[in-house]
Amino acid sequence: MALGSALGVACLAAVLTIPTILAAHDARTAARAAIPGDGGNFVYQEFLDPYGSQPLRRVFVARTGPGRAPSAPGVRELPPAGKAIVSPKLAQLLASNPRAAGLVPGRVTGTIAPEGLGGPDELYAYVGTTPASLPEARSLSHFGAAYTSEEVIDPSTLDILRFTLGCIVLLPLVIFLSVCARLSGESRSRRLAALRLVGLSVKDTLRVNAGESVAAATLGALLGLVGYLGANEVAAHVGLPGLHWYPVDGRPEATTLAVCLLGCPALAWIVGQFSARQAALSPINVRRTGERKPPKKWGTLLLIPGIGVIGGYCALSLLGRDPSGGSASAVLVPGAVLLTGAGLFFGLAPITAWFARRLAGTAKSLPMALAMRRTEVDPGASLRVVTGLVLLVFGASLTQGVLVELDQVSRRTTPIQEYDIKLGDLDAQQRKALLDVPGVRMQIVTYGSWYDLDEDMPRRLDLVVATCPQLIAATRNAKRCVDDKIMQLRDSGASFPDDPQPGERFPFEKGDGQKVTLTVPQDWIDMSAYQPSVFHTGALLVPPSLLPPGLADADGTLTLVSRADPATVRSVLDGIGGVAPTASVEPVGIVIDSLAQLTVIRSLLVVGMVLGLVIGVSAFVVSVADRAMERRGQVAALVLLGARASTLRVVQVVQVLLPLAVGLGGAVVAGWLAESSYLITGGGAVHWDWEGLPLLFACALGVMLAAALASVPMVRRHVDPEHIRRD
Fold it and tell me: Which of 204, 350, 478, 669 is 20 to 30 A from 569, alpha carbon to alpha carbon?
């Protein structure tokens, strides 16, 4: 009980500390926020740019008058013109990549202390300059705001994350701690019944059991907190993908300590009172193995409203209606998910007993009959064994839904991704090196026509340098494209009346200041592109061989094309940052902050799944071992009656697999319906996660196989005389 409670409390502390880590990051970023105001002697301008897949934040400051400079957290004083103070991570990057020096103009004179950074991996800099260098500068009043705009995770997304972690970690954790408090339940009940029969009162008998349980749980809680503190020190230095924190951020707060040190013993006391009540009230039945009461069926009623709500949303989607939006779904779907999870827990015992009764009546083999009759008589024992794994699979389906939904809102829902870089920011060597970046499929160059700045509504024409194969590979479809011929792109679904018309002439500026004129041709290509895209209606498709020489790089853009999955996008952005660190990169249709948030959310959900897996497997192992200890007397009786070892092992495996199959089947179906209802009400393009369904089935089959193999060595045919009972 102590070791099990220690593992549970360590996992509980890890889950409860995640919001603390995020809040510490947000508090420091709020404290460094620059606040504009009149009458200051400094001006500032902030820049947010991607360096690879990471956000790079730079604050340029310039003195405009005498006086004391505003105090920024983490730095002694703001840098003067020509100097810079950077974060330790950015200092390492500048030292290892000399080409990145252009990101921070001036000489680096120091690093920012932890109180001025959200985390140790942040790219942040204060750069001193002159007021004339900041055309959009604002007067600086002071640093420090009540709220931050640089949250690690958006507040609305954080609520979803908390709910998901609660389902995949906290629910199995409560089951696991209950299992630990219920260890050796049958032998303990017989011991308590003996105390009751020799004259101990009901209240004192319950106190004996509560004292044992609370003492073991308290010791386990202390060990678990010590273990978590050690794990936090290691994890803070290693970090997670997208999230690094300082060790002090991960140390439990007072509320977390109170929940761990008081909640775990309190749960053990409650479970102990419940499990020992029968021994205290009916000791004769316990000592003589009286007939057990059948499990109550009211728990299955929770499945009716839960499945009804999530099934209703799925039915509306199948009928072609869109139930997304509104405040009702924000309450109904989480409530239905919780009711369904509770129904799976409370309804597993009566459903398993019903199945066992039906199978026992039709069983033709002795092992099957023994297993089913035993499961029918005592389904609660099987419930303790498999509930953690069932809830784990149910939570895995919810995690898939959250990841799919966040993936939709954080990136383009198209098979390709484009990255725009100004040609003026690149030299010839860098342009060549960018084509070799892993994940990049092609390079496309575009030029914009020259126009008079004094015109109110100037007409412009974009020139796309690409071949027909490149056009076909980067669009949904393209018809009538002819190689080695200048043609106009037309998208019938996105055309506008002011598109350039055939015969119109547009000037393009060359590098020497002269201009070359192109005429819109009569020939056109019928195409459909993934918008926004470099291939848009009205633009000219010009083969590289027909491109006018010497066009000005200032009017040109280099577009890289890759696949749109998040791993490839991050790889390409990191590759661009390594080749051209000072170039401004625009990932078309992507917000770098959203991409970074998605990385953090994925990491935290993976941590939650790992914790849930550890808890579920631990609950299974503990329950199977404890159940084997309880069944020693029954196994001894069967051995004396001549049962073979193979028969006993088959009985043991079947007793585990039946409730596990029932529970996992319900978890897969209910979990997938819950995931679908979440996606449907989320309003995204994906309503049915067909790709995730095979993964759920594979997880369920893997769990059953592992459970069957783990159950085999739990049966021992060695008979101790103390296990031979007179009845």
Answer: 478
CA nearest neighbour of 38 among 167, 170, 142, 119 = 142
Q: Who wins on pLDDT, 20 or 40?
A: 20
Residue 699's nearest CA partner among 402, 400, 351 is: 400
Are the CB atoms for 524 and 480 separated by under 8 Å?
A: yes
Q: What is the mean pLDDT of residues 219-247?
A: 87
Task: Concatenate the DSSP letters of all residues of 535-548 into one string.
Answer: S-TT-EEE-GGGSP
Residues paired with residue 561 on neighbouring β-strands, in sequence order: 418, 442
pLDDT tens-digit series, residues 91-103: 888 888 776 777 7
For residue range 534-546, what is the model confidence (pLDDT) as tens digits?
888 888 888 888 8
Q: What are phi and psi of 443, to 5 degrees?
A: -115, 140
Give the residue from 83, 90, 132 showing the smallest Cα distance to 109.
Answer: 83
Place of tokens 């997208």: 242
CB 145 within 8 A of CB 33: yes
Would you state the structure tokens that stand for residue 385, as one six-digit string?
């064994």
Provide DSSP, 127-169: EE--GGG-TT-EEEEEE--SS-S--SS-HHHHHHHHHHHIIII
Closest listed residue to residue 128, CA positions, set 48, 42, 50: 42
| Residue 125 scores a pLDDT above 70 | yes
Fill in the amino acid letter for 692.
G
pLDDT given for residue 727 in this prediction: 44
Q: What pLDDT, on the 0 to 100 scale, is given for residue 226?
A: 92
Burial label, 324 (beta-carbon count in 10 A; 0-12, 13-18, 19+): middle
The DSSP letter of residue 73 is T
Query: What is the pLDDT, as a whole number, of residue 152?
Result: 74
E strand or H helix at 230: helix 202-238
| CA–CA gap between residue 603 and residue 95 (Å, rounded) | 28
pLDDT on residue 87: 92
Q: Which residues pair with 46 in a beta bridge?
A: 59
The CA distance from 552 to 557, in Å, is 10
CA–CA gap between residue 193 and residue 172 (Å, rounded): 30
- CA–CA distance, 401 with 164 (Å, rounded to integer): 10
The pair of structure tokens assigned to 19 is 């919001």
